[in-house]
Amino acid sequence: MRPLLAIVALALLMAAGCSTEIPTYTGPEVTRVVVSKADRQLYLLHGTEVLERYDIELGFAPEGHKQVEGDGRTPEGSYIIDRRNPNSAYYLSIGISYPNTEDRAAAADLGQSPGGDIFIHGTPREWRRQEDWTAGCIAISNRDMRDVYSMVRDGTQIDILP
């Protein structure tokens, strides 16, 4: 009985691990990520060719550029993908280099913090079917996040358009 229990436990662990397995991407390099806030779309590009397109959700107050911590806005402008988290509380995530020097200066002029920790990430079960629910991040489905995580490398430019 004990060996059977061990086999069942091992099978359950392996099945759980497969649910977040990141596919291997062997296609053209993603040279740029473009986010259209108005269209709620994220595009992965190789040069000028669109490789993939994904539906997105934004911060809970999506109009305008993020100015200060807690404003619920998603930044606008050009940034870099600068980190990744395979153990994110939001399934998987890749970091955006917000705030930059200009963002810090603008928030300082207001006497506030610009905030930070802006990511593209998956969507936990409790937030599915919600619109614009993040604190300023860009959310996509977990299935789409697996693809984006595998396709986009650190150092890739990301342009977030109004």
Describe the structure.
With about 160 residues, the chain is of the alpha+beta class. The chain has a single domain, classed as L,D-transpeptidase catalytic domain-like (Beta Barrel). The chain is built from three helices and eight strands. The chain is globular and about 45 Å long. Mean pLDDT is about 90; it is low at about 5-20.
End-to-end Cα distance: 61 Å
Count of alpha/pi helices: 3
Share of helix, binned? 10-25%
CATH superfamily, please?
Answer: L,D-transpeptidase catalytic domain-like
Structural class: alpha+beta
CATH topology group: L,D-transpeptidase catalytic domain-like
Q: In one word, what is the shape?
A: globular
What is the topology, as strand order, of the major beta sheet? 3-2-1-8-4-5-6-7
Radius of gyration: 18 Å
Biggest sheet character: 8 strands, mixed
Could you report the average pLDDT, rounded to the nearest whole number? 89
Key features of this structure:
3 helices, disordered N terminus, alpha+beta, L,D-transpeptidase catalytic domain-like, 8 strands, 162 residues, 8-stranded mixed sheet
Describe how the helices and strands are arranged.
Blueprint lengths: L1 H17 L13 E5 L4 E6 L2 E7 L21 E9 L7 E4 L4 H9 L9 E3 L16 E2 L2 H10 L5 E5 L1
Parallel strand pairs: 1-8, 6-7
Antiparallel strand pairs: 1-2, 2-3, 4-5, 4-8, 5-6
